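Researcher: We're reviewing a set of sequences before deciding which ones to prioritize for further study. For each one, I'd like a predicted 3D structure that I can look through quickly. This is DUF5675 domain-containing protein. If possible, include the structure in token form so it fits the rest of the review sheet.
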Amino acid sequence: MIKIIRVAQGKNSTLSHLYIHGLFACYLLEDSIRKEKIPGLTCIPEGEYGLSLNHGAGMNARYGVKYPHMHAGMIEITEIPNYRLVFIHIGNYHTQTAGCPLTGSYWQRLDGDYQVMHSAAAYHYVYPLLLDQIERGNDRVVVKNGFYACCTPAGPPSLR
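Model: Here's the predicted structure for DUF5675 domain-containing protein, in token form for your review sheet.
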């Protein structure tokens, strides 16, 4: 089972954990949780969704060049009402999400918002794991708001 568990909210950002078969895989950064969807500025609603490989989106060509030895298509979260082309991809700041989850090896908080850092390293780690799950037919992801005290001001757990 693949899960995205939201653990903290910033002013304009949401920090999550990605779990694959109950094991922490990486941090994810999304936009804020909003009652009304604002295109490109709203995170994925809670629920269960599909995962698939998208071979046609513009990001696919860029990632194919950037990761030629592992890229088999963009990992897309599908079946989201009023959303499409929601990809798990690289980025550090909520301004780079456009409604998509960004991968991160660790996080920090600055001016009331979360950031994920070493995004490319986290993506390089988690992409093959997710690809393997999709190929095995484990192509569902559960998204839950599970806010709890996972993170202390002293600093985050790290994948470094």
